[in-house]
Amino acid sequence: MDRPPLLMVSPLPPARNGIADYAAALLPGLAAHYDCAAAGEDWLAEAPPGIPMVDMALAHRLPREGWRRLCQIGNNPGHGFVLQALRARPGVTTLHDPGLLHLHESTGEDRPTILAGMRHAAPGLAATYARHLREQGFSTRANHLLFDLAGEVLARSQAVIVHSRFARNRLRLTHGEAATAHVEVIPHLLLPATLPSRAAARARLGIGAEEFLVVTAGFASAAKRLDWVLAALEGLPSLRWIHAGEVPPGLAGRLGARARITGHLPADEFDAHVAAADALVNLRFPSTGESSGSLARAFAAGTCCIVSRTGAFAELSADAVLHLPLAGGAGALAEALAGFAAAPERARAIGAAGRAYAETEMALPAVAARYRAVIEAAADRPAAAAGPLPPLRLAADPRLIADALAGRSGRCRLRLDLGDPDRLAELSLAPGGLAGALLPSGAELRAARLEEGALLLDLQLPG
Amino acid sequence: MSAAPLLAALLARAMPGLAARDLGLPLGALLPWLPGTRAGTADAAALDPAERALFGRFRQHGRGLLGLDPIADAEPDPAWEAARDRLAWTSLAAPVPGATVTLVAGGTGEAPLPEGFGRIILVAGRDDAPERHDMLLPEARLGDTLDRLCAAAAALAGPGWQPGGRSLSRRQASLSLLVPRPGHVPDLLLPAAALPHDLAVAGGSEGLPLDGARQVRLLIGSLPPTRWRLSLRFTGAEPGPAALFLDGLRIPARPVPGGLVAGIDPPTRHAPVLGLAWRDGAPPGLRLVTLEARP
């Protein structure tokens, strides 16, 4: 059967993020329904066998018509090119983090764009809480909770996939019913990799069979509450703790005194740590509804997962994980770990139930089929039009401007380098004002603003 | 545009010292065949936005491609300004400002001749698939240019070639240069530093410095539709585990001492982009000197 073509726009391994692993795991499932290719910034990224990797800048030259696009986007700078790709051409988007402020900040988005995104989502909040950014140019941690900057992704996507009802509801409450009517929930994926047995993993890592091993995983962001884990384990010195991932320098000293910190690990070593664990502790506070790749790996390994009862984690079956309350989290965690250490078979029972749950809800064929349903339903759905052409950069010289605009029609944006700031005053005071001083006849000035010493003009040209 | 190599040879012989601009992107038919040709587009607004974004990445001799950025276009170009013959290749049926000769790919059709301009209708290429291109130039230069083209055509002609030219009127002339199958498809030797690329450094006579680069794109211009054997020559170091890409997709490449060799089937509707990538960056001191293509 002739399968329609699908382009997955996403980071892929060896990129150091869980979304890259997710995309690599999902592609073989999608290949049952589509003729898949993967596009990214790293041309040597590791797409699964049989799936070609294409330079994102040249993806539009791929042969065949009718390409579906599936973008995988998360809240870190490794996804800047995905956002750009979505801006250039709409598609279906998997939004792994409902909050995208860090992505915007870390990929050099200009301040007006970020402020516009904040106003779009929450005008009232933006007026008050974006003040530091607007007036002093710095962003506070609170901004990351208050402003998700997901409005543009919602508008430019034919459909948006999130991994939890929490994430969908959060988007809906922020952006409204109409803007989120195309948001669908597809559970995270049970990664198809064959994880080693507990015994094999322990042998590989040099961990004794009788030791009780607690593993935390991934980049140690503040929301993962490793401070609570540290507090919980202070009174449990016999438990061994490994953090399988990177730790920011500010936390490394405190954490390193109690835990072994591995730094970023290749996938097979990461899997070995998850499989060797008696308990994977995966806390969140505050949660923005993000999903977790390490949790999916733990399910695959049958490792007991301890999670916060919040956000997307609260939706997991109570049989499949151990939920901890947010209040008194460190104490509850200490109690739970002590109980598991005393009766490890209880942890193993939860791990087995978690694996059974994941094999039902998160298996690759089922997830891929749900993706196909969303992608096909959205194939003819319009998304927001592409943005305006990038501005024409010019000196504020009417002759150059007339030359540049000759033969153009419709909407156009100019970015005029003013050089001397007094030049703006001169132009404004000229007969006919700014438009008369700079623009050829027929060009209608729709908007003007100053930005970093340049004058941005939005024009409507005749024709 | 199979006639491009033939037309390039004709123009180079008829107009020594010619400065050329190929404003025909996304095709770039003339670009590989006339050394020193600057690449660009005559109608950026008509480009697919993705193509426009792609071409916006490239720089040639340290400058952006023509037609994409008015500021870059306005920068002085001494080689162009000093040349007696300044040829612009375009698909738009109008003289290009600043050019002494505009070559309209595909011809000007029914478009009236602009005041003061003459036209030489060129019919060139394979005798079973000739192509029409129209040369627009100041009326006063028509006769002299036709004479030079006719002389060049006669000098180039090999066995079975059919050169011919005649004046049709004060403002119109025609020249034909037809070649038996498989046509005039010569070997191609391109200095790498002369090609549009997306490295931060410009390169020079010693090649294109790749030291530490993880990825580089090169715009080589259109090649006639046949299978080509492509050889990349390096200096300063062996290229090591370099991966080769054509229009964004990896293609098999065989390392040879000092280079890489690959067989390619270039696309016909746009100038192919060649890519080179190294997982850990190009070896220290590595320079790409030439690209050689043989049909």
From TrEMBL, chain A:
InterPro entries: Biotin_carboxylation_dom (IPR011764). It comes from the Bacteria. Residues 225-463 form the Biotin carboxylation domain. PANTHER family: BLL3647 PROTEIN, GLYCOSYLTRANSFERASE. GO terms for molecular function: ATP binding; glycosyltransferase activity; ligase activity. It comes from uncultured Craurococcus sp. The lineage of its organism: Bacteria, Pseudomonadati, Pseudomonadota, Alphaproteobacteria, Acetobacterales. This is Biotin carboxylation domain-containing protein. Keywords: ATP-binding, Ligase, Nucleotide-binding.
